[in-house]
């Protein structure tokens, strides 16, 4: 299915040799495995949507070793132009620092319907994602990173010329800032390579070297050319080692590995939402019953308990910046995770530490009349002014019902845990 679909919908793929097409499709599958596609406003995600969007990413990075754009983890697909409540305006496409790309499916398809109009929403937004991947220290391609710095030198000069009106090849939107200039250059690079090379030969050469491919060279699977063909008479001493370094790099299809840190980041980007959901489930259905048990064996009043829940929830809310940066999660879902998932799990962990790591102990003897102990049908009822002690003493005495004699006084042995909360470890009647 991918071969037929790509040959029909993607002219870049159609111009590749059979061997390169196979490598292209393998990369498409790999890219799809690492991204979470979400249909918005009723749009159902189909294989066609996933394949064609992934193909756009592979087209952009086909000359690079690291082609997955690892910082990008979620792709929201809307049926048409969509409204962003965050920015209070409508977009055809939007790429965020948090690794989320959103685009209009209608406009994405229009971008590939014409190969010469120099408008391609998919390539434009994925160019932003590739740029962000490097800025946010994702597992970006070192070749791209090194040449991007060289590209910027030429780009800043041409950006200024565009603002002054001396460049008409690139549309005016490219003059917004360097990020938009980069994205618009990518569109023109793939959709009008010959004209790009004619109008802006130095910028075109740096773009080809940066992406390690040349869309004009359809006869050789878009391989880059020699430095003389790109820079000609404008070749400088700085550009000679630039080209030599590019030629010395390994073949673009030799896939690079990832360090443990990068693997962890990729795991969080891909699976963080599921970890948060599991934590929320555990907090609700296991954490709450477990917390009730801890409260029954720890002398802590309800006011203090509520304060602890609030503080743990507040600590959970501090994670919002990290979650927004790495995980596609709505704020109300995050709030549920923060208080029901993280807070419950964290609070249970604190009570576990308090109960299992004692720091001191003491014993106190009380007259038995103080406790107003009553026995109803084999169950002990204790009445005290201290509700926390009453709750814990009732629990303890009911567990040791057979040991209660007719006594005048009661000695309670307390243990103070790591967090300063007491628990009853022994009771003796006298």
Summary, kept brief:
The protein has 430 residues and is α+β, with helices and mostly antiparallel strands.
Explain what this protein looks like in three dimensions:
The structure is a single chain. Helix 6 crosses helix 8, helix 7 packs antiparallel against helix 10 (201-211) and helix 13 packs across helix 16. The strands form four sheets. The chain has a four-stranded mixed β-sheet with strand order 1-2-6-5. Strands 7-10-11 form a three-stranded antiparallel β-sheet. With 430 residues, the protein is of the alpha+beta class. It has helices at residues 2-9, 11-14, 18-33, 47-61, 105-113, 121-135, 142-164, 178-191, 193-199, 201-211, 227-231, 239-248, 260-296, 302-317, 320-326, 331-356, 387-399; strands at 36-39, 74-78, 82-84, 89-91, 93-95, 100-104, 358-367, 374-376, 379-381, 409-417, 422-429. Helices cover 55% and strands 13% of the residues. The N and C termini lie far apart (84 Å). The longest helix has 37 residues, at 260-296. It folds into three domains: 2-248, Cyclin A, domain 1, CATH 1.10.472; 269-352, no CATH class; 358-429, no CATH class. The chain contains 17 helices and eleven strands.
């Amino acid at each position: 299915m991918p071969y037929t679909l790509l040959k029909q919908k993607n002219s870049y793929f159609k111009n590749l040799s059979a061997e390169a097409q196979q490598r292209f499709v393998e990369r498409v599958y790999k890219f799809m495995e690492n991204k979470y596609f979400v249909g918005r406003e009723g749009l159902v995600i189909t294989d066609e949507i996933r394949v064609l969007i992934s193909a756009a990413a592979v087209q952009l990075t086909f000359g690079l070793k690291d082609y997955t754009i690892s910082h990008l983890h979620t792709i929201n697909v809307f049926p048409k132009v969509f409204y962003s409540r965050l920015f209070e305006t409508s977009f055809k496409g939007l790429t965020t620092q948090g690794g989320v790309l959103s685009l209009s499916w209608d406009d994405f398809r229009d971008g590939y319907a014409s190969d010469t109009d120099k408008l391609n929403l998919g390539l434009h937004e994925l160019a932003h994602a590739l740029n962000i991947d490097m800025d946010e220290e994702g597992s970006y391609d070192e070749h791209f990173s090194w040449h991007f710095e060289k590209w910027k030198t030429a780009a800043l000069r041409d950006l200024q010329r565009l603002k002054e009106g001396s460049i008409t090849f690139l549309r005016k939107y490219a003059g917004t800032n360097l990020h938009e200039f980069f994205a618009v250059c990518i569109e023109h690079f793939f959709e009008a390579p010959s004209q790009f090379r004619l109008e802006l030969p130095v910028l075109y050469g740096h773009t080809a070297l940066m992406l390690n491919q040349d869309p004009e060279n359809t006869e050789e699977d878009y391989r880059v050319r020699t430095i003389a063909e790109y820079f000609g008479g404008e070749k400088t001493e700085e550009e000679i080692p630039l080209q030599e370094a590019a030629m010395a790099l390994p073949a673009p299809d030799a896939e690079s590995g990832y360090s443990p840190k990068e693997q962890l980041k990729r795991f969080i980007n891909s699976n963080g939402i599921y970890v948060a959901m599991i934590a929320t489930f555990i907090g609700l259905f296991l954490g709450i019953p477990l917390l009730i048990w801890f409260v029954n064996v720890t002398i802590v009043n309800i006011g203090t308990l509520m304060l602890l829940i609030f503080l743990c929830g507040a600590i959970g809310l501090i994670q919002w910046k990290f979650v927004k940066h790495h995980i596609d999660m709505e704020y109300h879902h995050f709030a549920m995770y923060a208080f029901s998932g993280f807070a419950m799990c964290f609070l249970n962990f604190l009570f576990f530490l308090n109960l299992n790591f004692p720091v001191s102990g003491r014993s106190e003897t009380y007259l038995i009349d103080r406790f107003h102990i009553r026995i109803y049908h084999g169950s002990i009822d204790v009445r005290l002014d201290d509700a926390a002690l009453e709750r814990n003493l009732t629990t303890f005495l009911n567990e040791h019902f057979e040991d209660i004699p007719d006594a005048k006084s009661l000695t309670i042995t307390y243990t103070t845990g790591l967090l300063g909360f007491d628990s009853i470890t022994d009771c003796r009647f006298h």
